[in-house]
Structures
1.
Amino acid sequence: MSFENLNLHPLILKAIVDSGYTEPTPIQEQAIPELLAGHDIMASAQTGTGKTAAFMLPALHRLATPAKVHSRGPRVLVLTPTRELALQVSEAAAKYGKHLPRVKVVSILGGMPYPLQNKLLSQPVDILVATPGRLIDHIQRGRIDFSRLEMMVLDEADRMLDMGFIDDVERIAAATPATRQTLLFSATLDSAIDKVAARLLKTPKRIQIAAQQARLDNIEQRLHYVDDLSHKNRLLDHLLRDMALKQAIVFTATKRDADTLADNLSAQGHEAAALHGDMSQRDRTRTLTKLRHGGLRVLVATDVAARGIDVAGITHVINFDLPKFAEDYVHRIGRTGRAGAAGIAVSFASGKDGVNLKKIERFTGQQIASHVVPGLEPRFKPRPGAGGASRGTPNVAHKRSRTWSNDTSGRNANSANGNRDNSRGRSFDSDNRGNSFRGNSNPSPYARTK
Ligand code: AMP
C-alpha cells in the first residue's frame, strides 16, 4: 500500500514526501480510509506506530475543504494527557499541513500564561491541541466557540483515564456538536476504555495494532543486571562515555531521583539536565529546546515528562529504573530510533525487578538480551534461564545475541517453538530462577535504597 492509494489531498501527499515517508504504517493504512469515510474509530496504537499522522492526515484533509459553518472556532480538537505530547501533535500538524493554504494550529496547555492563550483564542483557529484541564477553564470563561467543530481526537486516552482527566474530557465533549467525528487512541483497549468509547463515540470501527507492530524493530534492547545504586551509577557513567552515544534519555522512577541523577552526572562532567512534571513549563520547554538543538547530551526524565519527545538525535534510552508499567517501557524506548534511525535501549535490572521485567517481555512479545561490561560485572547473577541467558548467550560483553525483528517468524524463533508464554515463563518463574527475583515477598539484598 502506498500513500497515493489513500486518496489524501495532493498538498498533504507533498508534505508526506517531504517527511521522507515511503509507505503508511499499519495504523495509518487501517485508520485513514475509515476516517476519510467519516467513521468514528477507536484504535490501540502506541507511540512509535505513526499514530499521530494516522489522525492528523485525515484531519488536515478535512481542512482542505472550506468549513460549512462560519465561525472562528476550531474545526479539529485534539486532547492529550501531557503538554509535551500536545506540542508534539502541534508540530506534526504544522509539518503535514505546511503546503495547505492556511492552517492555524493553536496549543492550549496548562502551565502557560492565560493572556497569550486568550489572544490566540480570539483569532480564527483550525486545529486546537489542548490538555483537558486548561481547556475546561477557557470553555467555562466562554472563550471557545465549538460551533464548527468537525473532529475530536482523544490521544492516549488510557493515560488521560489514569491521570484522572476523563471527567474533563467528557465535559469538553459535551460542549462540542454531536455531529462531530470522534477518534480515540489508546495503548490498550480494555473495559475502562470501552466505557469511555461507549459514551463518546458513535459505532466506532475498532482498530487493533499489536504491540509487536510498533516500530521498535530498529531498536536494539539490552539488559544489564545490577547490584545496587552505586553499580548503576558506575555502569551509567561507562555507557555515557561511549562515543557512539550522541544523545540519551535516562529514565528514573521519581522526580527527585531525576534531579539528583542529573546533578551527579553534571558533576561528573556530562552535559545533563532533568525533565519532570514538577518543573515549570518554561523550564521544561527550555530544556527540551536545548535537547533538540544538540546543546544537551543527557536528559534525565520521568515517564510523564518524556511522553511525546521526538528528537532525532536520541541514540540511546537508558532505563536507570525500570518502569512500573510495561506500556511505559514501550513509550520510553520509542524515544530512540525515531524516524527510521537505529537506537539502543538499555535497561538496568536488579534482583527486585524480575516481575516487572517479565511483564515487559510479555507485553512486547520479545526477550531482552543481557549484556555485561567487562570490569563492571554484577555480583548478583540471575540463575541460568534468566533474560538473555535463556537463549544460550549468558553475559555476552556488549554483543547482541540476536536481531530484533518486526517479522513474526523471527519473533517465534526467539521463543520455544513459537510458544512465547512457555519461553518467557521459564525466564522468571522456574524454580531454578533464584529467589532474589521473587519480588517484594523476598526483597533482594541488592535492592536500591531511596
Ligand atoms: P508517532 O507514533 O506518531 O509518535 O510517530 C512515530 C515516528 O514515526 C515519528 O517520528 C514520525 O515522524 C514517524 N512516522 C510517522 N509515519 C511514518 C511513516 N509512514 N513512515 C516513516 N516514519 C513515520
2.
Amino acid sequence: MPEFIPLISKQEIDRKIKKIGQQISFDYKTKDLILIGVLKGSFIFMADLTRQISIDHTIDFIGASSYEGTSSTGQIVFTKQPDLELEGKDVLLVEDIVDTGNTFLKIIEFIKLLNPGSIKICTLIDKHERRKVKINVDYSCFSLEKGFIVGYGLDYNEKYRNLPAIYDLKL
Ligand code: IMP
Ligand code: MG
C-alpha cells in the first residue's frame, strides 16, 4: 500500500499563495496580466492563486505532454493551446512543479512565438533534484531538494490530485 507522509499543510499553502498573490498584484499594477496555467497539475493552484490577485487579469491554460523518447531532451506535444490573444500581454506562466525544466523551456519557446509583452514564471514547487536547464523562476511558493510529492493537483499516474495538501509518496 502506498504511504502518504504529510509535507506541506493546506494552511501553509494558503499563507504562501496569499503572499505571492499580493506580490503579483503589486508587480503587475500597471501591466496587462494574463495567468496561463500549465495543465493539468496547476489547476488547483491556479484556482487559489487567481482569487488572491486583487488587480484585473485574465486566465487561460496550456496543455503539454512530454514524451521521453530516445533523445535525452524529450519531445513535447501541445494538447491545448491558449484561446486568448497573447500579443502584447504580460504572461505569467503558472506551473505545479519545475523539475528538470525541459517541459517549461519548450512552453516558453512556444509562448514567445505569440509575441507577448513579457513572460514570467510562477511555480508552486521549485524542485532542484534533476534540473537540467537554467530556468529563472520569478515566483516560487516552496522549494524542494528531492522526493516525489502528490496532492493539491499533483499526481502519480493521474491519481491523488484530489488530496487536500502536499504529501511525500512512498510506494
Ligand atoms: P520537467 O520540469 O520537464 O521535468 O517536468 C516537470 C513536470 O513533471 C511537473 O510539471 C509535474 O507535472 C511532473 N513532476 C515532477 N516532479 C513531480 C513530483 O514530485 N510529483 C508529481 N509530479 C511531478
Ligand atoms: Mg505539470
3.
Amino acid sequence: MKVQEHEPLSAHTTLRLGGTARYFVSVTSIEELREALTFAQEHAAPLCVLGGGSNVLFSDAGWTGLVVQIALQGTEYIEDSKGDARVTVAAGRMWDELVAETVSQGLWGMENLSGIPGTVGATPVQNVGAYGVEVADIIDWVEVLDLTTHALHILSLSECAFGYRDSVFKHSEGKKYIVTRVAFRLSTHPKPIVSYRDLAAFFADRTEVGVQEVRDAVLSIRAAKFPDLAVVGTAGSFFKNPIISKRQYDAIAHTFGAVPSYPVDAQRVKIPLAWVLEACGWKGKRIGHMGCWDAQPLVLVHYGEGTATELILFADQIRHDVAARARIDIEPEVRIVG
Ligand code: EPU
C-alpha cells in the first residue's frame, strides 16, 4: 500500500476541481483496504471513499484526512439452466466496461445504464439510474466492509433501502460501510425496457430489439446530450429532479406552462428540472469558467481553469433563482465534500 501526500484531487475527479488530499491511497485488495483504515486511525485522519470521481465535487480546501480510492477488481459469472445469470463484481471495476461485457454476452439487465462513468461500487450508493432503469432493479446483494469491525457483510436489497438517487449508504446508519462488491441479477431472456421518452422515439414502431441495439441507442442518445469528458469537466446531472406535491405542480404549471411530470405516489410527482432551468433561461448560460450545458441544462460544466468555489457559487445562483421563480428547493445530486 503506497500512501501519497498532498495529492491533487482534480486529477481524480471528472469535474477536475478541488484541492489536495493530505493522504491518498488506491487499494486493490481487501487487505490493503483494511491497512488503509488502520493508517487512517493511527494518523487520526478522517476518511473519504472515492470511486471513479464522476459524481463528486471536492472543495478548494480539499480533504484534510485520507482519501481511499477503491480499485478492487474481479468479476464472476454464474448462469443457471433457466437462463438467469448472476454477476458478482468488485467495487473498483469501471461500470461501463462491465455493461459492455454483459451486453456482449447477450445478458439483459444493464443495457439502459450504458455510458455512465464511474465505478461499480458507486452505483448502489446513489442508486444510479437512467432511461427507465435503476441499479436497484437488478441488484441482488451488496457486500460491504464495516469501518468499525473491518469485517465483511452482505446487505440484502431491502437493507440497502434504495430510493430515487438514494440508499442506506447516504444516511447515518449506512455511513459505517464501504461497498466492496455488488451482485447483479441478469437474464439471457430478452427484457427490453424502451418506454423512456428518448428510447421510445429512437425505436419508434420496432417491436423486437436486441440487447446490443438498446446499448447502442442509449450511447447515441447520451452522446447528443452529455459533453465529452475529455473536453470539459462535469459530473453529469448536478441537481436531483425535484419531487413535489401535486398542489405545487399546479402552481408551477400555472407559471411555466405544461411542465412534464411523472407520478411518484398519490400526492407527489417528479418533474424534470432541466425543463424548469430551460424556462428560466439557464440552458447554455456560462458565467466565468462554469456553465449549464447547452444540450442539457441540468448538466453543469467546468470549462477549465476554474475553482470549486466558483462552481458552488454558480450552483447557488441557480438554486436561488429556481427557489424564487418556481418556489422549489432543489438539492445537489453530486456529492459535495470538504
Ligand atoms: N429537458 C428540457 N430541456 C433540455 C433537456 C431536457 O426541457 O434541454 C426536459 C425534457 O422534458 C426531457 C426531460 O427534461 O424529457 C428529461 O431529460 P433527460 O431525459 O435528459 O433526463 P434528466 O431528467 O435531465 C435524468 C438523470 C440522468 C439520466 C437521465 C436519463 C437525474 C438527476 N438525472 O436526467 O442521470 O442520465 O435522466 O434517464 O435523475 C446523473 O445522475 O448524473 C445523470 C446524468
